[in-house]
Amino acid sequence: MLSGISYLLMALNFPLPGLPAFLKIDFSEIPAMLATILLGPIAGLAVEAIKNTLHYIIQGSATGVPIDQLANFLAGLFFLLPFAFVFQKIRSMKGVLFGLAAGTISMSVAMSLLNYYFILPAYTLFLNMPQMSIAEVKQVIIAGILPFNLIKGTIIAIVFLMIYGRIKEWLQHKFNVQNA
């Protein structure tokens, strides 16, 4: 069920002004974060995997191969795993805050590197676009990918904190999540 909600949230996306239009914010990581808190990181990653599989099956990909879905899954992975690791060590609101910060930083750095070495070159290959120079790729990373992921992580963290603050006690009672 969380995967279905995550897929629907993925469809409600929006670009950030001043950044490349192909970079869009959505809130589909929030159900995966709830799954992570309730059932652990494997459940959160399962939500991410199912969400992206549904997206590829239903919406397809401009490249014919699921590069965008793979990139979204990897962004979710690099956001969720540090969040889960920190939250499992510090099961409090402090752990949630540090986990969100760690996830945002991890996602931003990892996606910058993955875009530099794999994702952007794959897009240019599969879309039959001219290959970008190293300077152009660096410019896209520094001016687009890195700030986008920092902003995305921050926005997701703020929205998650607003939701989590309201459902924390319910999670503790309904699902017997201790120190959620």
SSE inventory with pairings:
Layout: H1 2-11, E1 14-15, E2 24-25, H2 29-39, H3 41-59, H4 67-89, H5 93-126, H6 134-174
Antiparallel strand pairs: 1-2
Helix pairs in contact: 1-2, 1-3, 2-3, 2-4, 2-6, 3-4, 4-5, 5-6
Given as residue ranges, the uncertain stretches (5+ residues, pLDDT < 50) are none
Which value, in Å, is the CA radius of gyration? 17 Å
CATH class designation = Mainly Alpha
Indicate the CATH topology. Arp2/3 complex 21 kDa subunit ARPC3
- Proportion of beta-strand residues: under 5%
Keywords: Cell membrane, Membrane, Transmembrane, Transmembrane helix, Transport
Pfam families: ECF_trnsprt (PF12822)
Protein name: Riboflavin transporter
Transmembrane segments: 30-50, 70-87, 96-120, 140-164
Structural account:
- This protein has six helices and two strands; from the N terminus they run αββααααα.
- The protein is mainly alpha-helical.
- It has one domain: Arp2/3 complex 21 kDa subunit ARPC3 (Orthogonal Bundle), CATH 1.10.1760.
- A two-stranded antiparallel ribbon has the order 1-2.
- α1 packs antiparallel against α2, α2 packs antiparallel against α3 and α2 crosses α6.
- The model has no long low-confidence stretch (mean pLDDT 94).
- One of its GO terms (cellular component) is plasma membrane.
Structure, briefly:
With 180 residues, this protein is mainly alpha-helical. The chain has six helices and two strands; from the N terminus they run αββααααα.
